[in-house]
Amino acid sequence: MNLQTLISIRNICAIALCLWESSAKTVTYDFNVTWVTANPDGLAERKVIGINGHWPLPIIEVDKNDRLVVNMYNGLGDKDTSVHFHGMYQNGTNSMDGLSMVTQCPVPPGSSITYNFTVPQNGTYWYHCHTDYCYPDGYRQALIVNDANAYFYDQYDEQFTITLSDWYHEMMTEIAPDFISPYNPAGAEPIPNAFLFNDTMNTSIPVQPGKTYLVRLINTSAFVAQYFYIEDHTFDIVEIDGIYTEPTQASTLYIHVAQRYSILLRTKNATDQNYNIVTVADQVLLDVVPSHLVLNHTNWLEYNSSAPKTQANVTLDIVSGLPAFDDFTLVPYDKQPLLPDPDYTINLQVAMRELANGLPYAFFNNITYTRPDVPTLYTVLSSGDLATNAAIYSQYTNPFILPKNAVVDVIVNNADTGSHPFHLHGHNFQVLARFPSYGPSFYAYKSPTSSGVSYDPNNHPAFPSFPARRDTLVMPPRGYFVIRFIADNPGVWMFHCHIDWHLEQGLAATFIEAPLELQAQLSIPADHLAACEARGIKTTGNAAGNVEDFLDLRGENKQAGFIPYGKFTAKGYVAMGVSVSSACAGILCLAVYGMSDGKGGKKSGGGGAGALVTSREKLT
Ligand SMILES: *[C@@H]1O[C@H](CO)[C@@H](O)[C@H](O)[C@H]1NC(C)=O
Ligand SMILES: *[C@@H]1O[C@H](CO)[C@@H](O)[C@H](O)[C@H]1NC(C)=O
Ligand SMILES: *[C@@H]1O[C@H](CO)[C@@H](O)[C@H](O)[C@H]1NC(C)=O
Ligand SMILES: *[C@@H]1O[C@H](CO)[C@@H](O)[C@H](O)[C@H]1NC(C)=O
Ligand SMILES: *[C@@H]1O[C@H](CO)[C@@H](O)[C@H](O)[C@H]1NC(C)=O
Ligand SMILES: *[C@@H]1O[C@H](CO)[C@@H](O)[C@H](O)[C@H]1NC(C)=O
Ligand SMILES: *[C@@H]1O[C@H](CO)[C@@H](O)[C@H](O)[C@H]1NC(C)=O
Ligand SMILES: *[C@@H]1O[C@H](CO)[C@@H](O)[C@H](O)[C@H]1NC(C)=O
Ligand SMILES: *[C@@H]1O[C@H](CO)[C@@H](O)[C@H](O)[C@H]1NC(C)=O
Ligand SMILES: *[C@@H]1O[C@H](CO)[C@@H](O)[C@H](O)[C@H]1NC(C)=O
Ligand SMILES: *[C@@H]1O[C@H](CO)[C@@H](O)[C@H](O)[C@H]1NC(C)=O
Ligand SMILES: *[C@@H]1O[C@H](CO)[C@@H](O)[C@H](O)[C@H]1NC(C)=O
Ligand SMILES: [Cu+2]
After folding, report:
1. What pLDDT score was predicted for residue 565?
2. Which of 88, 135, 226, 598 sees the fewest Cβ atoms within 10 Å?
3. If you measure from the C-alpha of residue 331 to the centroid of ligand 5, how many angstroms do you get, rounded to a whole number?
4. Domain 152-332 is of which CATH architecture?
5. If you take atom 1 of ligand 5, which residue's CA is the nearest one?
6. Does the predicted model carry a pTM greater than 0.90?
7. Residue 574: what are its φ and ψ, rounded to 5°?
């Protein structure tokens, strides 16, 4: 069959699918979540979270408008879990968003829970565990929504999906205690042991000459962003995070944790050679680059299986700048114009530092997100008219009440020297401003001695007429961004950094959108409540679990006190010494100081310091 015939068959199918849309189907997955073993980098076999006895996990695939049902059984035996469907709007189904202590209870071993919602969106998404540190243990995979009405549907011959991720050899339960530890006051993130390409390495992707492929790229990392390019090929970006874009040519992408790109890749006509697909981990994010860690990887676009395959010589200058396509410039295909001026503005300042308990935390406006005793959604549903009073959710969840259909601006200034991929649940957002831009000046203010650049609402470049939209956006070091969306989706939606380490350090805020409308439209399914009962968590009351007086927050979980700015505790100094001396002798810094004297010291000397961590852990 020639290509022309193929295309016309596709068009007929497209029309047919269009007619079928009103009778969308239900797609059901049964997930028996258990431990299995895997060795994707060939360096170490380890326990990973499998589904139905397998890892890599199944790619969820649905057609636009389908109902997706996932029956999840927690067969892990020793760990709570949940699933979040990243990028799904969950419009009318906030209870299916999968965040422990926000929209549900953590599901304990031996319990089941069903997720059930419709998918009115198109594009490339993913699913992952959202209970403590759990997706780096392997619980993450692609979720693809096929859309026969996509404008580029008749422009490609085949599609494939590639996930990019970082990989740790140790279990999160082993790494995490050494991360939020008095011996790591600077909060140095654990260095991955490897970087995976589609959950493996050294792979060849066979392609035919003269064809067009839709390639869906998903970053399922816990920490590290990657550059992606294919030698001697350019491609057209057609989607970011579920939003179709005007086809825009690019050659190098920077894909941070949780971001997705779909590209149309046109293959060459000649089949005399293969081409390197190159991924480069962003070493700027790593405090130390251990000598064994391989940052640059070559996989192959295979035109000819008998032709040689070489290793790429990578020449991107990634240390002084960010040499990749700037997503800020992408224009959505639907050309949604700049939304009107905001009705409601949220100002957030990002910082990372140690608290008086000697542990490293991350902050929005000096508040580090601290889990409530009752999932925030359940507080909304049990609080009647008080649901619009932010106080009941505890100031330590960083709550913001958004009025129904308000145009909301979120202005985020970054006082931290790191870059952070921020994700908003339940929405995509327009990107109005970001500074510095991708390119040579991206790291211009990274130095700790620089004062950085703050957004000035009275003096800023004109906003784009058709701003890029996505659900995960990279924040530059010591720079800022401004995003805008309409609060048209009643629910409790988290806004947080998607680096799993930073989320655990508290870099999160809770947007409580139209809580009274939410009360009117939502009730919690019995199996979700049963999971709470099995886990011993209350399903009514304010953030402190008080049902008598919602304004009485006594007993709420709080963050530790501040230490005078610029001072380290004595313990902090010791810890710095430990981390400087051993950090970086070995493959995994934290594992190294986990084994040093530091750890014994923590057990005996952590004392009051551990209290907050204990109260955080107790709940999850
Ligand atoms: C899940 O898988 C485990 C291990 O194969 C098995 O023992 C268990 O019965 C399964 N549970 C369910 C609910 O399917
Ligand atoms: C991939 O290739 C590199 C370089 O040849 C090798 O060191 C590594 O072990 C390979 N990885 C796997 C999983 O085969
Ligand atoms: C999913 O939700 C729909 C609509 O509420 C309901 O009709 C259906 O029975 C539910 N399916 C499951 C498996 O719970
Ligand atoms: C989904 O695709 C339809 C066309 O099928 C388009 O009208 C709509 O804007 C798309 N939605 C998003 C979120 O891109
Ligand atoms: C990537 O991995 C998934 C699941 O393991 C597999 O289904 C898919 O075919 C792989 N993609 C490519 C391009 O090989
Ligand atoms: C995925 O994101 C992580 C975290 O930002 C990053 O380190 C990694 O390089 C990214 N991977 C790819 C292939 O883009
Ligand atoms: C491949 O050949 C076709 C038809 O001969 C031509 O239209 C196309 O431009 C060629 N593609 C490339 C990348 O040279
Ligand atoms: C494939 O590569 C081999 C080895 O380089 C070469 O001899 C052969 O001609 C190539 N085949 C095609 C169809 O280009
Ligand atoms: C990389 O450099 C080496 C040494 O200069 C060279 O032999 C090799 O062909 C180069 N590889 C590519 C893909 O250009
Ligand atoms: C990996 O890529 C970086 C960035 O381009 C480069 O500086 C470094 O030399 C590369 N390393 C190797 C082993 O190719
Ligand atoms: C955070 O606290 C410091 C010290 O108390 C204060 O100077 C600063 O203004 C606060 N920042 C925010 C954003 O509230
Ligand atoms: C949610 O649904 C409402 C009502 O159908 C609609 O107006 C709104 O645009 C939707 N919001 C999102 C984020 O899908
Ligand atoms: Cu972060």
Report:
1. 58
2. 598
3. 29
4. Sandwich (2.60)
5. 198
6. no
7. -55, -45
